[in-house]
Amino acid sequence: MSPQLVRLLTILLLILIHLFLLRVIRAIWVGIKPTRDIRSRVNPFIKGHRPANVLIVRTPETLNGQRHELTEEITIGRAATCEVTIDDSYASQIHARIFRRDGEHILEDLGSTNGTYLNRQKVSSATNLRAGDHVQIGSTVFEVTP
After folding, report:
1. Is the omega angle on the peptide bond into residue 60 within 30 degrees of 0, that is, cis?
2. pLDDT for 73-82, tens place per residue?
3. Above 60 in pLDDT, residue 63?
4. What is the C-alpha separation between 99 and 93, in angstroms, rounded?
5. How far apart are CA 43 and CA 76, in angstroms?
6. What is the number of structural domains in the chain?
7. Strand runs (DSSP E) across 28-120, as ranges?
8. Which domain holds residue 23?
């Protein structure tokens, strides 16, 4: 092989490596989404960020409209000891809790098998609730209202 051909192939290989690295970096960058913790720093008095006060069942249809007041602390699950009892085979006995801290209601998964979802995102740590949020536990969906 001539030295010019070897040099050209080396340059092409370097270009391909750089393109590959740029695509990997871009994929990582696009995949990163802001956490819900950013939202917890939002002023609750800004329009659209009203504090939560009531959970309303949206699905299943048989329970649609059922209301549950958010007090200092409630637990949600299949156990009879929960303040909000749901008949859902995908829910744990004591699945999640909602508690009040600094005037805000906080949603926390209690190590459930299938997870707790807030606005279709899995809850991994205690997260503030706002009016309009949707909480999913198993196949049961609640809407948070003021």
Report:
1. yes
2. 999 999 999 9
3. yes
4. 18
5. 27
6. 2
7. 54-59, 67-69, 73-77, 84-85, 96-101, 104-109, 116-118
8. 1-29
**Predicted structure pTM score:** 0.61
Residue 88 gets the label, from left (phi > 0), alpha (psi -120 to 50) or beta, of: beta
Identify the H or E element spanning 37: helix 36-40
Element at 78 (helix H, strand E) = none
* Token output for 145: 């209202």
CATH of the domain at 127: 2.60.200.20
Q: Kindly indicate the confidence band of residue 6, based on its pLDDT and cuts at 50, 70 and 90.
A: very high
Residue 72 lies in a domain: yes
Quote the CA–CA distance of 143 and 1 in Å, as a whole number.
70
Same domain, 56 and 118: yes
**Do 75 and 6 fall within a single domain?**
no
In angstroms, the CA 73 to CA 60 distance is 24
Q: Does residue 85 share a domain with residue 14?
A: no
